[in-house]
Amino acid sequence: MPAQPHITIRLEGGSRSFSPGSLLRGEYWLEGVSSEEVKAVELSILWYTEGKGEEDLAVHFFRRDSLDQLPYAAGRWIGAFSTVLPHSPLSYQGLIVKIVWCVRVRVFLARGKQVLEELRFRLGSAWVPKGISK
Amino acid sequence: MRAEEGAGLARWRRFYEKKRGHRRTGSPVLAMLGELCFHGAVFFAGCLGLAVVLVGFVIPDWRINRDFIQTECTVLDVGVSKIEKNGAPLYRPAIRIRYEVAGETRVTTAQEPWNRRTEDPKQCEQFAREFIEGQKYPCWYDPAHPDVVVLVRGYHWGGWIWLIVPSALIILGGGGLVYGLMRWRASAERRALLVQQARSLPRGEPSTSTAEQWPGIPPAPDPKESPGTTLAYRLPMFSERGWALIVSFVVGVLWNGVVLIFIVLAVSRYLQGEPDWVGTAFLLPFAAVGAGCIYWFFRELILATIIGPTIVEVSEHPLQVGRTYELFLSQSGRLKMKFLEVLLVCEEEALYRQGTTARRETQRVYEDRLFRQEDFTISSESVFQTRSPLAIPAGAMHSFQSPHNKIQWKILVRGQAHGWPVYQRSFPLIIFPARADGLLPCPPNPT
Questions:
Q1: Pairing of strands B307-314, B324-333
Q2: Option in A7, A54, A127 nearest B395 (CB)
């Protein structure tokens, strides 16, 4: 039975809420695999839509690494990332349209298998405007 | 762990696919493999076709005109030879010539271009009669094979056109192969990134463009393109009434066109003294629907024309969340109004597939009445005009647009004249998120 990697994503400062144009910094850890078992690791910072409509997705930051490129310490591979977040689109929880921002790590294992982990965060503070006047 | 893809218990791959709502069963790997095989086959067929056209026609035609060496020959015999192609007889001129190559005398039958082969023996004889026995003519021989000689040179572009077919197959198949291989094992994020890069490439926009600075927000209009007369920017109008008018016209013309044919037939039979009362009775409900279509069209026409132009201007555009602007409304016409109101509206719009049908759902999430007036008259001498503050609620979501999802802000002007149904005119707005520095992609015009 091949080993299953365990992915942990952590954002600097522990906050999950960011202002548009601010710096998003963090790191991810990959545990339980060797460099031979992993073909590549993709890190994306992206938004996607949820709700009634078909999913739309746009990538703000993307990086593809091999494990050899990542530092190894205390039994885990560590990948750091940092990017300036854009001004839009802001995170939104509407009635039929929702916009979700996240950091997503996708690990490509040998034999074509993939494992992914994502950590959602909030960009800006846009809300469903209250009120339908009668 | 959110998800694991490609892992699971050993089982047979599904070779066929079923739709389960918007999900699909079946193996994406097999689907991709099938797609690659199809494009590979198209590419291979193109290469094969190109090789056949090149070797069989293009290269020989090119060599005859570029490499063959000119000399002089004597025509010994002129005739017509018959060959069979696919069971049909085909005739070609057969001209035996004598010529010298490097001091050596050779006798052979000159090759004829493919377009001088014909099913008509008389036409072939005409070709052959261009040469007279015993006379001397220029001829061209292949330096590599001196027995190959021609009496007629020139490019035959009709044959070169056949290059288009295999070239098209190579481009289509090759393009599909490259695209498929790029997507092979590529993650959704990587594919999305490739699409984003491909979209920005042809436009060659600088990094400071609005789209890159404000992703997901529809492009902001240039205030200079639509200046207002009272305030800085005149909003473009979207009227559902215009579409209703077009639809009523098209439906009315088509329906009544068909009905009219049957009416003419019924009347002509009546005039001939052979009235078809059953047929005429059957036609009556269709004629009634046709009359209804005519009524519908004229009602839409009157509604579109009796309510005069509605003009909405704003003090700045694009707008910004949390700020207050000024709005100007002008309504012309000769109307006794029951009411007229201006609404600021935010709607979410989602596009989705249900089975094979594409559906659109709209949900209004915000509506604020900016202005309302009841029981008043608009005359041609006094156009109704009013100003109103336009406050974009703080913390509200900005305008957003992606291929299947949209958040749209708009000004809605609704009104009703006595004796007429309610009309509605829509003026889309672009609203940007609030920024501490207040910077927007387009500097607002001064009012």
A1: antiparallel
A2: A127
My answer on whether B87 and B169 are in the same domain is no
Q: Which chain A residues are within 8 Å of B400, Cβ to Cβ?
A: 88-89, 92, 97, 99
The two tokens of residue B442 are 């387009």
In a domain, B387, yes or no: yes
Interchain pair A128, B397: CB under 8 A: yes
Are B403 and B272 in the same domain? no
Residue A102: C-alpha distances to residues A20, B76, B116 (Å): 14, 87, 71
Residues B339 and B364 in one domain: yes
Contacts of B212 (CB under 8 A, 6+ apart): B200, B205
Give the CATH number of the domain where residue B419 resides: 2.60.40.640
Domain count, chain B: 4
CA distance B407 to chain A (A): 8
Per residue of chain A (134 residues), what is the pLDDT tens digit? Answer: 556 789 999 999 888 999 999 999 999 999 988 888 888 999 999 999 999 999 999 999 999 988 888 888 888 999 999 999 999 899 999 999 999 999 999 999 887 788 999 999 999 878 776 665 44
Which chain A residues are Cβ-neighbours of B345 within 8 angstroms? none
Residue whose pair of structure tokens reads 């545990």 in the numeric block: A31
| Domain ranges across chain A | 6-123
Give me the architecture of the A6-123 domain, per CATH.
Sandwich (2.60)
Residue B21, class by beta-carbon neighbours within 10 Å (0-12 exposed, 13-18 middle, 19+ buried)?
exposed
**Looking at the domain assignment, is residue B249 inside a domain?**
yes
Would you call A126 and B321 a contact, using CB atoms and an 8 Å cutoff?
yes
- Do B357 and B399 sit in the same domain of this protein? yes
Residues of B in contact with A5 (CB under 8 A): none
Report strand pairing: A38-51 vs A23-31.
Answer: unpaired
C-beta atoms of B435 and A124 within 8 A: no
d(CA B237, CA B311): 8
Query: Residue A90's closest chain B neighbor by CA?
Result: B397
List the domain range (segments joined by +) for residue B124: 69-152
Residue B39 sits in the same domain as residue B118: no
Question: Both B96 and B165 in a single domain?
Answer: no
B359 and B412 both lie in a single domain: yes
Round to the nearest angstrom and report the end-to-end CA distance of chain A: 63
A125 contact residues in B (CB cutoff 8 A):
395
Q: Are B247 and B107 in a shared domain?
A: no
> Residue B30 class from Cβ within 10 Å (0-12 exposed, 13-18 middle, 19+ buried)?
middle
ipTM of the complex: 0.90
